[in-house]
Amino acid sequence: MMSTGIDDAVGPGVHLRGIEMSFNAVKALKGVDFSVRPGEVVGLVGDNGAGKSTLAKIMAGALSPDKGRIVIDGTARSFSNVRDAHGQGITMLFQDLALCDDLNVADNFFVGREPTRFGIVRHRWMHTQTRRNLETLDIRLPSTKVPVRLLSGGQRQSVAIARAVSFSPSMLILDEPTAALGVRQAKATLDTIRRLRAKRIGIVLISHRMNDVLSICDRVTVLYEGRVAADLSTTGLTIEEIVRYIVTDPDADRPIADQSQADTQPTAER
Amino acid sequence: MSIVEQDESERPASRRATQSVADPLIVDGGGGAVAATRPRLLPTISGSAVLVIVLAVLFTYFSISAPYFLTTNNLINIVYAVSVAGIIAAPGTLLLVAGQLDLSVGSGTLLTGVVMATLSVRYGITVGVLAAIGVGLLCGALNAFAVTVLRVNAIITTLGTLAIFQGAGLLITQGQSASVEGFDTLGNARPLLNIPLPCFLFFGIAILFAFVMKFTRFGRQMYAIGSNRVAADLAGIRGDWLIVVAFLLSSLAFTLSGLIYVSQLGATTSNTGAGLELFVVTAIILGGASLTGGRGTIVGTVLGLLILGVIGNGLVLLNVQPYWQTVVRGALLIGAVALDQIRRRQARL
Fold first, then answer.
1. Which tens digits make up the pLDDT trace of A12-28?
2. Chain B environment of A153 (Cβ under 8 Å)
3. What is the ipTM of this complex?
4. What is the Cα–Cα distance from B31 to B244, expressed in whole angstroms?
5. pLDDT, tens digit, for every residue of B246-256?
6. Do B221 and A112 touch (CB under 8 A)?
């Protein structure tokens, strides 16, 4: 399926080209191109059912596309599952699935990779390392010995992000990271994301909060019924413009001369 | 892979976010009590401390009302009485931390005891013991197979094997007792300070499991799979293999318990090990382990065992009908789970 063709997908970062995906009769993605470069925060927006989650799941290895290529740093890749994608540097934070509520912060940080010396788990070292990791992202917690169940939603989100970052991924996908959070906590999460950009991690932010998207993203990709409606720089962009792309069929207002060309592509109606 | 579809667990994150800060939080186990964002000055009590207080109250009460209670011999008797249950409760705690329950420990005790007694008569004690260990491991493997491969819930699986092992044991002896000669040491020897050998085995195994659960990757990962199986899977933990090992450990424990029973009585009877699972599960839950997994400590379980032992012993000394013990034990089990529910609600779980 994969071929390292010479096209625009050769630069550093993660590039998806011509991604198509169907669920039974429903075409969820109809040839989507999407790119995230190191240190770039890209907003992925669109109405419900536009294909954001499907695209994210494909990037995260949770789904395999019917067609299309995934190119990371110039090399074609494919993922057999989420752990495979994770191993290849692409990590998605799944809401509520990232953390073990009963474990403390440090245990969560090192779950599945507990450091040992002579077979004995190094608790103190885990706490030191966790604290250090959180500090580099400027995340403040009362203690790393607290079970994460007792943390606020924003703190949990921060811990999950910090844990994901500790694997040094090349790309991190965040699906509605601020949706369940209060204003202050959401701001803290956005601040954390800004610090990830400085670490040269590519970030995909799926969000309905256009304010968040505009304030933090370098670029916005708008999906409309499985197609890319727009790929915009956020410089000078307004919420109204994004919303217009979200709700307008990209083919509808094209000149009639172009319509025949559009017909050769899979149609939006299903 | 349908990892994404299993999203949206029970409680909305926003509720946690807004409420977890406001309330005093009670945490059990070794964690101590911590408030979410700002430090709490309100005194909060850890689960184990509650158990120590309960134990102290019981001690005081029985010491006053039953003169014989606070004698060295009686205290040894209390520990002796719970030692077999304690040996089983150690891997039982490990299992429950992973969200699994083994109810087949009582009838497993019967079956392995019967195998040992029956074969010893014909082939000698060594063969009997080895056969019991083999059969015990097979029992554990059967439990593990049903839970991890057939995906049958652990409670249902071990409820089924409870019946199977019991039936098998009674089939072998045709419901009669099976007796052994010359196998007294394991259950009756008092190697030090007049303390019986099973007590030492109980303490040794408890310490071993406490260490394993706190300081080995295996133990830490059991907590992870019990707390959030999907997250543990994503973190690369081989949850099913850990559960298999835990069920095998549980089966080794009930094999040892079967051997101790045979040694103590010189025989098995048709009700050897009967009700042991209730005693063990009650102790573990009383000790603060959560039925849904993720929480529980050996220290808590040992305290739970001692509470049950002290109550049982004290009631006997006060000449209360022995059947009351069973009633009290059942009530304690329900009470312990209810207490856990209250604790969870307070912790905004």
1. 888 888 888 888 888 88
2. 13-14, 16-17
3. 0.74
4. 28
5. 999 999 999 99
6. yes
